[in-house]
Amino acid sequence: MEIKIDENGYYGKFGGAFIPELLHPNIEELKANYLKISEDEEFQNEFKSLLKDYVGRPTPLFLAKKLSEKYGAKIYLKREDLNHTGAHKINNAIGQALLAKRLGKKKIIAETGAGQHGVATATACALLDMPCTVFMGEIDMERQKPNVERMKILGAKVVPATSGSKTLKDATNEAMRFWINNPDDTHYIIGSVVGPHPFPDMVSRFQSVISEEIMHQLQEQEGKNAPDYVIACVGGGSNAAGAFYHYLNNEKVKLVAVEAAGHGIDSGETAATTAKGSEGVLHGFKTLLMQSEDGQVTEPYSISAGLDYPGIGPLHAHLYESKRGIFKYVTDKEAMDAGVELSKMEGIIPAVETAHALAALDQFNFNKEDVVVINLSGRGDKDLQTYINFGNY
Amino acid sequence: MTNRIEKVFHQKEKEKLTIYFTAGYPRLEDTNTILKALDESDVDIIEIGMPYSDPLADGPTIQQSSMTALANGMNLNKLFEQLAELRKITQKPVFIMGYCNNVLKYGTEKFCQKCAEVGIDGLILPDMPMHEFKLQFKPIFDQYNLKNVFLVTPKTSEERIKEVDEQEGGFIYMVSSSSTTGGSWGDSPERLEYLKRIQSMNLKTPRMVGFGISDHAALKMVNQFADGGIIGSAFIKALNADDLEGSIKGFIKKIKP
After folding, report:
1. Per-residue model confidence as pLDDT tens digits over A249-262
2. Integer Rg of chain B from CA
3. Is B54 a catalytic residue?
4. Which of A24, A23, A28, A31 has its CA nearest to residue A6?
5. How far apart are CA A275 and CA A295, in angstroms?
6. Can you tell me the ipTM of this complex?
7. Sign, CA torsion A348/A350/A355/A361
C-alpha cells in the first residue's frame, strides 16, 4: 500500500477541496503554483538558508538516556522545541510566507489555537515585511496570554474569534471568512495539515524537513536511517506529518499518532477524533470529524489548546483508516505527568501538546534494541501557567 | 414535465425575488408560518437555510440565526417533518441551502430521497465546488430530480461560468461581490461591470444575484442585468417573532412596492 495524495487532493477517501466558490480562484492559484514555486532551486536555497541561519536547523536528535532506560528502548528526541519561536510551526510559516511573496501576495492571515502557529507566522511576516493578522479564539486568547503578547510585539494584529465556541475551530472559520472577503492580495497561512487541497500536502512538504533530518541523523548515530517507531502528537497533525513524511512508505517504521483524550475517550470531554469522530467535511476538506448525529461540528476538549481541534488532517485520517498508522489516546493527566517526568528526567520542559506524545510511551512494550524517535514538537514556556495550575510537580 | 423552477422563469422575463430564511429561526416551529407568508407575498423562489455550526460563506446575521436555530433544537429530521406539509402550503420552487457536511452526515442518498418526498426542487451548497459535485453527488441528485445551484463570483473565469451553465442547475447564483453574506451594497463600478459581463454571455440558465442586497434600490439595479435578486440577511433582520406574518409581508412590500 502506497501512501500518497492524488491529483484531486485525496489521501484514500479523505481530503479534497470543499470550498465556497468565493475561494475557488485562490485555491486554484495555489494549486497551480505551490509545487512549481516550492521545488524551484532558488526558492529552496532561500528556504533552507532561512531554516539554517534564522530558525536554527538542523535541530538535534538527542538520545534521552534516562528515558531510554525507563522504557527499555533507545529513545531519541527530535528537538523541534529548539527552533526559533519554540516549535516546529516556524518551518511551515517561513515556507508559506516565502511562497506567498512569490505569488505576489501583500498580506498574510493565519489562525492559531495555542498561539505557536500565530507566533511563527507573525515572526515570518516581521522578517519578510508582510502585514500579518492572526485570528484566535477568545477563549484561547485567555489561556495563552503570553503568545498573544508575543504576536503583538512582533507587529501582528490579533483578532479575537467570537463566533461559535470561540476556540481554534472558530478562529479557522474567521480566517477563512476574512480570506473570502479579501481574496486578491491576501494569503492564508494555514498552520496544520488541514484545509482544502493543496494545504495538507503543502504543509506536509514544508514540515518534511523534520523526517529528512531524522534520516540523516539516525544514519550518523545508529548506522541506519529508519527508526522502528516515530511517535508524535496529533491535533491537526502537522508535526506528525513532518516526522512521518519520509517514512510513510517504509512499512518497517511504525508511525504512532497520539491524540488528546482529554478527560477520557468516553468522558464526553475529549479531542480523540479517530476514536470518536466520523466522516465529515470541515474547513474545506473531508476527514474524520467530531460531530453530532446531525452533522453539527462538536467542540472537542483537551487541556492543550493546540490539540483541541475537532478534526485531523486527511493524511492522518487515511493512516488511521488504512491501519498504516497506530493511533493512541492520552488523557490530560497522563500528558501532564509525562511532561513533568521529562522535565525532571532530562531537563526539558515540553509543550503540553508534546507531552501527549511522551505519555504514549507507557502504552508500548519495546524491545531493548528498538529505536524510537519522539518528535518533541514544542517547548513548554507558553504552558507554564497550565503546569502551575495542574500542580503535579 | 416542466418543473416548478422552469415554470417560474418561463412565466415572465425578469424581476424574480428569492427569499432566504433559516429554518428554526426565530422559533423552532416558525418554518411553515414563514413559508405560508412567503407564498402569499410577491416572492418567486424560496430558499430554506439548514442551520450549520460552521457556515463559512455566511456573515454575522445568518451565522447568528443559525446558532439560534440550533439552540432552538432545529435538526434535519425536524426540518423534514415540518416540510411534510410543504406542497400543501406553496407551489413555488423551494430550495434548501446548507453546507456539505450536513448532507454527508445525514447520508446523501437518504437526504435527496427526503427532499424529493417533500417536494424540494434543489439544493444550494456553497462549499461544494463543481468538481466534488461531479465526483460524488451528481448521480444521486439526478436520480431524485434535484437541481444543484452553483455559485459564481466576480472572479469566476468565463470558462468556468460556461461549465456552470451546462449543469442546468435551475438558476445560477451570482454572488454580487467577493464577500460573505450580508455585506454592504453601495455604488460599485466593478459590480456593474461584472453584472454586464455575465449578461453579455447569453447563458441559457437564469441568473439570480445575491449577497448584500437589502432594499428595493439594489434589487431594481440587479433586475436590469439579471433575472432577479436573492435576499437573506436583510430578511432575517426584519423578522419580528411577535408578528412574523406582518413583518414578512411588510418587508416584501418594501422590497417590491
Report:
1. 999 999 999 999 99
2. 17
3. no
4. A31
5. 17
6. 0.92
7. negative
